[in-house]
């Protein structure tokens, strides 16, 4: 018996990009072929709202065109045959199959389908049990974890200097404002090399060779799955935190050096559960901004994680509230709320609202207003009057 709840029904807020889009976003630049197993709509939603690289960069992202009859009778062979034919025509480096609500309701085993495709084509094939009912962080984390399990090779040796992988870099969290490049530059300026960025401005070969890095820097919760796999496979420690302002950046650099030396994992963002200034968003980036604001301005700030896949790996005081009915009570007593503009209707009238657009929530609507907080936090603080 299937028991469903109306708790996830959004009356006021929009929803974050789905886990299916997270898979597509994570793998977009790596030369593979991603197939959403769905009737039609998921592909147009993804390329229109969730993928800012769609019109400037080629990528093999397809829909399976699942029909009503196939959904009811379970004709998985058509999906296999169509995918195998496309692989032979297009020669991708790998295949990824991402589920959507209908095939997940009918119990399609995409992992088994992927194994058959791999046997016929001779290239890696992944099947992801995404269902469109979870946020993009869940799907991206599964995709990155799969790469860490099967694509990353044993390193012949570590790099000669301290080096890192940036894990969890997708435009759903960082858009195309240049933040990914800024984070790389800031680390390089601190004497830390960047082996790979998962997965913007990266190649599959860079991903495959990434185990030669000394530490992993998890900059969003999308990277947590890969960090856990590489810790288990190669003993690579990880640091969790998004470079955000000068003081936070210094803490991250120090933590990376310490973790490279002692092999311990470190989770940097802290959140004051009683603070009246609130940041809502993806767990790691929201908690990092809250941490940075407290360091830069002295203003006690707390974070609310509104996406999946974060709470189990973050021991700090960051509540995970993915439904609007859970978020609204957490805003009681808030004096300042920092969040995507679409959150404004649920913010108390007594609180000041500071918009911080998030590509994974409002899509392209306010893309031009998304700041690069990795290097522009001070200017953003001044602009919004958040100084001491």
Structure description:
The chain is an alpha/beta fold and 388 residues long. The protein has three domains: 14-134, Rossmann fold; 163-267, Nitrogenase molybdenum iron protein domain (Rossmann fold, 3-Layer(aba) Sandwich); 277-383, 3-Layer(aba) Sandwich (Rossmann fold), CATH 3.40.50. It is built from 16 helices and 13 strands. The chain has helices at 19-27, 41-50, 68-73, 76-90, 101-105, 110-121, 136-150, 171-174, 179-189, 204-208, 224-234, 246-262, 283-297, 324-330, 359-362, 373-383; strands at residues 33-37, 60-63, 95-99, 125-128, 163-167, 193-198, 215-218, 238-240, 266-267, 277-281, 301-305, 336-339, 352-355. The strands form three sheets. The protein has a five-stranded parallel beta sheet with strand order 6-5-7-8-9, with helices on both faces. β10, α13 and β11 form a beta-alpha-beta unit. α1 (19-27) packs across α7 (136-150) and α4 (76-90) runs parallel beside α6 (110-121). The chain is globular, with a radius of gyration of 21 Å. 49% of the residues are buried. The model is unreliable at 1-5 (pLDDT under 50).
Question: TL;DR?
Answer:
With 388 residues, the chain is an alpha/beta fold. It has helices at residues 19-27, 41-50, 68-73, 76-90, 101-105, 110-121, 136-150, 171-174, 179-189, 204-208, 224-234, 246-262, 283-297, 324-330, 359-362, 373-383, and strands spanning 33-37, 60-63, 95-99, 125-128, 163-167, 193-198, 215-218, 238-240, 266-267, 277-281, 301-305, 336-339, 352-355.
